[in-house]
Design brief:
alpha+beta; two-stranded antiparallel ribbon; 11 helices; globular; four-stranded antiparallel β-sheet; 245 residues
Length: 245
């Protein structure tokens, strides 16, 4: 769900739509909710990717794999993952601080609206690039986009220049229409949504080091991984040409 009609009524039921409305009211640009389960296909892909050494010096990816693949191991009692997106434009200079401040505000609103026990009282459950969690995959699971050929999350309306943040909750929302995005449930083993990207290869050709070749991201060759100052694969993406970013 993106910003649109975000009016909130009283006596809310715990549904993904109502959670999303609360998130958008607070300032997030998009929000979705996904039921917790183990990401088996991701686990298989990640284990193979790490075994090939394609993760470079990111040794932390070798640790806590059970937690990374299953939020119920990371947060005991977890039932759903609330995933929120904030565009680069709205994130300020320190996106960790901005996203987390909104997540804490959303947590307070969720407690106020649905009860204190909606989140764990004993385990950390708010994350923004700060825990063993496959954030982009949970964005896909929550219906917020697809994994493009540039290996970034791409939201059809917001593009790829977004920062995700998550709240793991201990209650299951009532099923309701969540406005799912078609064609975005591609497995990470395919590492892209071929329908969404179609025959476009602008990001592949724009990558100055070939880090995206062979349909796999080689962190050892990626300038963004080594210097944090390369967005070529995002700048050329057509999904970013009509966004506020």
């Amino acid at each position: 769900m993106c910003k649109a009609d975000i009016s909130i009524s009283s006596n809310l039921k715990l549904t993904s739509a109502n959670i999303s409305k609360l998130a958008l009211e607070l300032g997030f640009d998009a929000c979705g909710v996904a039921p917790v389960h183990r990401l088996d296909e991701d686990a298989q892909f990640m284990d193979s990717w790490i075994a090939q050494g394609l993760h470079g010096e990111m040794d932390y990816l070798e640790r806590n794999r059970d937690k990374r693949y299953d939020p119920a191991v990371l947060v005991p009692g977890a039932q759903a993952v609330v995933v929120c997106l904030l565009t680069y434009e709205h994130s300020g200079r320190d996106y960790h601080r901005r996203v987390k401040s909104l997540l804490y505000a959303l947590e307070a609103k969720l407690k106020e609206t649905f009860g204190e026990d909606i989140v764990s009282a004993t385990h950390q459950h708010i994350f923004c690039d700060s825990a063993p969690m496959l954030e982009r995959r949970w964005c896909v699971e929550a219906g917020l986009g697809f994994i493009g050929k540039n290996h970034q999350l791409i939201h059809p309306e917001l593009g790829s220049m977004v920062h995700p943040g998550e709240i793991v909750i201990n209650q299951s929302p009532i099923a309701n229409c969540q406005y799912p995005i078609a064609n975005c449930q591609s497995p990470i083993a395919n590492h892209q949504s071929p329908i969404a990207c179609s025959s476009c290869r602008l990001c592949l050709d724009a990558c100055p080091t070939g880090a995206l070749r062979n349909e796999v991201w080689d962190a050892r060759q990626c300038i963004a991984y080594t210097t944090h100052h390369c967005l070529e694969c995002q700048h050329v993406c057509p999904y970013n040409q009509t966004t506020p970013n």
